[in-house]
Write a structure and sequence with these properties.
Elements: H1 2-8, H2 13-23, H3 50-57, E1 95-99, E2 102-105, E3 110-120, E4 124-129, E5 135-140, E6 159-163, E7 177-179, E8 185-188, H4 192-205, E9 213-214, E10 221-222, E11 226-227, E12 235-236, H5 239-248, H6 251-258, H7 261-268
């Protein structure tokens, strides 16, 4: 803070922000986040080997099994806003150096948030809200200043997905996200809540467990089921079960969403395997 006071004066925005935080730390965006890691004093997992204990200690998630869809609730691959890297604090959790000072992502991540407001000045600005309720501005610095996105797709309540998103701006100023490549973002015509509810259905009915799939209509497990020919992600014993899933379990609306290859790509793409950065469209299929 001394440096800010010298260069910007005692009434500079960074100094005022820091003074306010020193009096009331609860105003900081990261306040309370560490409580998610809180455990009891005697909550120690026993009987683990060194590698397993290290994974338990750092809350690392188990690798995704072959044939299993990606889980959009995973905050490792799909972090919340305050789980994103900050452009002023490049961390090796997200980046590796390949050419001296040049940094590139070392893994994939995708930020999901819902459009809460939008307006157009010189360029699009969208206010977006993550699943924790954190609202931040999304500023377009693309070549077309946001005009690459069809206006009918930019709607309050729709979900944005941003590849390799960063928190930007001074540490104690209002955080934001800057979009510089339009191919790093996709807008889905559904709310974030509905998308995560669909994710829960996909987790239950799309993957295999011990070689068995689960019928979306009746819940029966079997090695041989028939997939929905339109979305290819839900499975059924036969026509009767498919009709039940269509009419009674909302697959009619879910199936329409899942015909978007990019939405299916969120589930089928191997987020754990990094060879190079990817862009939308995500045209990947799941076995």
């Amino acid at each position: 803070m001394l440096g800010w006071a010298i260069f910007g004066g005692d009434d500079g925005p960074n100094v005022l922000e820091t003074k306010a935080l020193s009096k009331d730390p609860s105003k900081h965006g990261l306040y309370g986040k560490s409580m998610k890691w809180k455990t009891a004093v005697d909550d120690v997992s026993l009987g683990l080997g060194p590698a397993e204990f290290d994974n338990w200690l750092w809350r690392r998630e188990k690798p995704r099994l072959p044939g299993q869809p990606a889980d959009l609730r995973s905050q490792v691959t799909f972090p919340l806003f305050y789980g994103l890297p900050h452009d002023k604090d490049i961390t090796t959790e997200f980046y590796s150096s390949t050419d001296g000072p040049t940094l590139r992502p070392r893994r994939h991540w995708l930020f999901l948030a819902e459009i809460s407001d939008f307006f157009i000045l010189e360029r699009y600005q969208i206010d977006i809200q993550d699943v924790d309720g954190v609202t931040v501005p999304l500023i377009f610095r693309t070549q077309g200043r946001g005009s690459e996105f069809v206006p009918s797709k930019v709607q309050i309540g729709y979900t944005v997905a941003i590849l390799y998103a960063q928190r930007r701006g001074p540490r104690f100023a209002e955080p934001r996200i800057l979009l510089e490549e339009s191919s790093n973002m996709k807008i889905f015509p559904t709310s974030l809540r509905q998308l995560l509810e669909l994710n829960d259905q996909v987790q239950r009915y799309s993957g295999k467990t011990n070689g068995l799939r689960t019928c979306h209509g009746c819940g029966k497990q079997a090695a041989s089921l028939k997939k929905c020919t339109k979305c290819s992600l839900f499975w059924y014993c036969g026509g009767d079960c498919q009709i039940r899933g269509w009419n009674e379990k909302d697959h009619k609306s879910d199936c329409k969403l899942l015909r978007d290859d990019d939405l299916k790509g969120l589930f089928s793409f191997d987020w754990d395997k990094f060879e190079d950065c990817v862009r939308f469209p995500l045209n990947y299929t799941m076995d």
